[in-house]
Amino acid sequence: MMKKLAAFIVAMSFAGAAGAQEKVDFSKQIRPIFAEGCYKCHGPKKQKAKLRLDSAEGILKGGKDGKILVAGQPGKSDLFRRVTLSKDDDDVMPPEGEGEKLSKDKTDLIKSWIAQGASFGAWKSDETAAASGSSTDQSAEATPIPEPQLPQVAPADAGAIEKVRQTGALAMPLAQNTNLLEVDLNLVGDQIDDGKLAEVTPLASQLAVLNLARTKVTDEGLKSIEGLSNLRRLHLENTHVGDAGLSHLKNLTSLEYLNLYGTQVTDSGLSQLEGLKNLKALYLWQTKVTPAGVESLKKALPKCQIDTGWEEPQTAKAPDKPAEAK
After folding, report:
1. What are 200-238's pLDDT values in tens digits?
2. Which of 158, 126, 110, 130 is nearest to 45 (CA)?
3. Residue 248 DSSP code
4. pTM
5. How far apart are the first and last CA of the chain?
6. Domain locations in the chain?
7. Would you give the DSSP letter of residue 268?
8. Who's near 312: CB < 8 A, 6+ residues apart?
9. Are 126 and 55 in contact (CB under 8 A)?
């Protein structure tokens, strides 16, 4: 009886999440707050207490006093605590004389963002966004790919969802009126190895978005996601995944977005993606692919926008004619 009651409570809490407020978009809603109120002391020009807030890496790393963010737990996140202190407190951010105290609507937004798992989406840093011509990677997250009719799937097992959440990961409904799920393992990436990844297998039918950025998953571990038939977005950035791992993605025919930024992928691995005809966005910054490999994939996937982070090649100029002798 107690087991049934516990399962019922978990199921009800998951169902309640479906009616929760709309997911906070970091790029559109949180980054501007940090830029206006925090970058003066914790940005590219100055890093008080060795803390930077202009990059996802800096926010996750924290400062000299340790981490400032605990995904899913605003009350344990020093970032939220300090922006809600009274203005005369020595620890308040921003400190007196360095900027206006954040309004309640802004601190509430930060609280919601942390409570929802503190996802950065595709944003990595202001510097990266600027280097890409201000936006290609960032806008891919800020302007989601239009969704066709979502497939109807059975509700996920509440126990399987809870097991994923116990890792510290975010597991939440993709949208209202659907049983599809988003699972974000990014913010506990240093704890996620191949064994932990295997725990998402019971959610194979329901998983639509999976974020494995900065985790310890390997090529071998990606076998666990071969059966995710409804997976639409997959983040693998800053992992050790290489060509062998991409062989496990060949059956993910619903995949529309794939981020391989900072991985070990080469041209050989790109050829494994040629059958993913629904792929619309692929990110290949700081990989080992070549222009020739990218061009080959473009022929197989002409509708896919491939972002390598490279500058557009310049038209070769004819050499100047030598000056005529006088």
Report:
1. 999 999 999 999 999 999 999 999 999 999 999 999 999
2. 126
3. G
4. 0.54
5. 104
6. 22-126, 155-307
7. H
8. none
9. yes
Phi, psi (degrees; rounded to nearest 5) at 99: 155, 165
Question: Please, are residues 187 and 212 in contact by the beta-carbon 8 Å criterion?
Answer: no
Which has the closest alpha carbon to 238: 163, 175, 186? 186
Please say whether the beta carbons of 106 and 69 come within 8 A. no
What tokens does 186 get? Answer: 């990014």
| CATH H-level superfamily of 155-307 | Ribonuclease Inhibitor (3.80.10.10)
SS3 for 81? helix
For residue 34, is pLDDT > 60?
Answer: yes
Contact 181, 208 (CB under 8 A): yes
Query: Following DSSP, what letter does each residue of 293-306 receive, concatenated?
Result: HHHHHHHH-TT-EE
Residue 162, burial from CB neighbour count under 10 angstroms (0-12, 13-18, 19+): middle
| Alpha carbon distance 127, 130 (integer Å) | 5
